[in-house]
Amino acid sequence: MGWYGRTEFLEQVMEQGYLFGCCAVNLREVYAGLRPEEEDRAATFLSSLEYLPITPEIAREAGVLRRAWMKKGQTLSYTDVTIAAGAFTKEVPLLADNRKHFPMPELRLFPLPERVG
After folding, report:
1. Strand partners, 109
2. Where are the alpha helices (DSSP H) in 1-117?
3. Residues near 11 by beta carbon (within 8 Å), at least 6 away in sequence
4. What is the DSSP string of 44-57?
C-alpha cells in the first residue's frame, strides 16, 4: 500500500498552524507496522510530535467507552478506545484512517487521505 498524498496532506495541515500529538499507544501501533528501512524516518517524525501521556482519566474513559460500545453489540479494541479517550479528554480532533474503528458520533474525526497502491 502506498501513502501517496499523506505526507503532503500532513505538511499542509502543519502549515495551517496545527500541532500533532501522539501517545504510547500510537507509538506502539506505528512501530509494529514499520519496515526496518522506515524506522529512522518514522523516529524523526514521531519525535516532532507533542507527547500525550495516558493518564488515569484517559484509561478510565477508555474503559467506559469500551463497555458502552460492547453493550451496543460492537467490541472495539483497547487500542482504539484508548486513542479515542485521549482525544475526548484533551478535546482535540483525531486523525484516523477508518471511521469504523472510531464510531463515536461525538468524536471529532479528521480523516486522512485514502491509501493508494
Report:
1. 94
2. 6-15, 24-33, 39-47, 56-71, 78-90
3. none
4. HHHHTSEE----HH
Here the cell at position 41 is 524516518
Triad 36, 42, 43: Cα angle to 5°: 100
Separation between Cα atoms, residue 62 and residue 68, nearest integer Å: 10
* Sequence-ordered list of residues with C-beta below 8 angstroms from that of 18, at least 6 positions apart, any chain: none
**Residue type for 105, please?**
P
pLDDT tens, residue order, the chain (117 aa): 344 567 778 788 888 888 888 999 999 988 998 999 989 988 988 888 899 999 999 999 999 999 999 999 999 999 999 999 999 999 888 988 788 899 999 999 887 777 655
